[in-house]
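Final report, closing paragraph on structural work. Over the funding period we assembled a curated collection of sequence-structure pairs, and we close with a single example.
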Amino acid sequence: MDTDLDTLATALYVTVDDLLLAHPERVPARPVVGIAPRTSDAEMLSLAVMQALLGFTSEARWLRHARRHLLGMFPHLPGQSGYNKRLRKLAPTMSWLVSALAAATSVVGDEVWLVDSTPVECARSRETVHRSELAGWAEYGYCASHSRFFWGLRLHLVTTVHGLPVGWALTGAKTDERHALADILPGLPVPAAVLAGGRQVLIADKNYYGKSFEADLETSGIELLRPARKGEEPRPGQRFFKPLRQIIESVNDTLKGQLDLERHGGRSIAGVCARITQRLLAMTAAIWHNDDLGQHVRRSLTAYDH
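Its predicted structure, as stored:
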């Protein structure tokens, strides 16, 4: 196989189709009597991944492009309204596929995890904030990395050192990162290191602190490595922080720079969730495909963005 978008789309479609046939409970429920969609769920999910990888933030522009260039692969494309509705209903399926594809890679069992959160801006003008359906979930927060305030959400992400997402959550901008991580942990796969009687290493920044918080992680078989806060004694593993912290920062940069995380265009809770999950699925699918091909840099999207 080659590292190009058509090959990725074909491999993804075949794999997703097999997974959905094996797990029909993951497919959105449909009435027994009615018109069956001409575009299958596997085709919709493959289209969603291709849209994210090619950088189409507008669904209307994406469907025009698909009708011009992809009818050979997808002969029955839905209209814009139908495409949008199908993707929103498929958001839980996409979330499940992120885990399913990750489990099929050779790097899911890495003994080191990285955790961080990144802003997902949802509006800028005061009028938009007041009218937005996201009000009450989205809120004002501060991004220390870029020294700016924003109105929106935070994506909390746990990845391997190859950038493979193993757990994530989307919360309000002011949510405590420790609380978000505590909610993510029960849904993570049991690490191979823990099954072997050892400990999984989790590298985080200074915001993941607290004796009770670290004690809970220890109970779960996770060893937390983070920089010392002001007034604390030096902590072990200092030499690993800078290079490994740069990986999670690079993952966030990939999501924002190449997969347009902050240009999601969602205006409702369902729309935002679908679009964020779509981008995580696209990155996971690229890593899964690169891993299957034996590529050294698994998180590279260069072969798929044109």
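Strands lie at 112-123, 139-143, 148-160, 165-172, 200-203, 222-225. The chain has eleven helices and six strands. We thank the funder for supporting this effort.
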